[in-house]
Amino acid sequence: MEILCFTVTPFAENCFVLVEGNEALVVDPGEAAPELLQALSRYTVKTIALTHAHIDHVGGCSGVKAATGAELVCHREAAPMLEAAPLQGRMFGMDVPPPPAPDRFFDEGDTVSVGGVALKVVNCPGHAPGHVAFVGDGFIIGGDVLFAGSVGRTDLPGGSMGVLLDSIRTRFLSLPDDTEVYSGHGPVTTIGWERKTNPFLQ
Fold this sequence. Notes:
CATH class: Alpha Beta
Number of domains: 1
CATH topology: Metallo-beta-lactamase, Chain A
């Protein structure tokens, strides 16, 4: 499997495209950037999956869905924030098109698939309502839970530092040290490196 990263929006959000064969899975399209849409045109895109519904992660849902016809899936608890994306945008002086309604919801223990490869959905509350991560073979697409040297902010609605740290401990630090962490912002890191050096985890 190949994992492509497109850093989009003024928030430098990482949109990930997971490619297996001729299929692609889009995770967190913060913006329907031309380079992202051009890359997706080479593949069959069946699913757009959201880790959570903050504006920097969902601003491109309408454009990507229109270009690919893919279904949009998220956790049920993320749906109200997704619906409020235009309002979120106005708070930051951004014009965000209303995102489409989710085609279905996922929850703990479900999977999202690309080209026959299934990623496990795990619930990771603490940063935002309905936050999830996607666990594959040797990697986790983690959204805004754990970053290289930091953790997700918890001062937004639905945030809780205690809950976030519990999510990191049970969902991230339970993985092998060589597991690669693809975060919503910043570079790729590993579980082992964060376990040893992340000041929030000491």
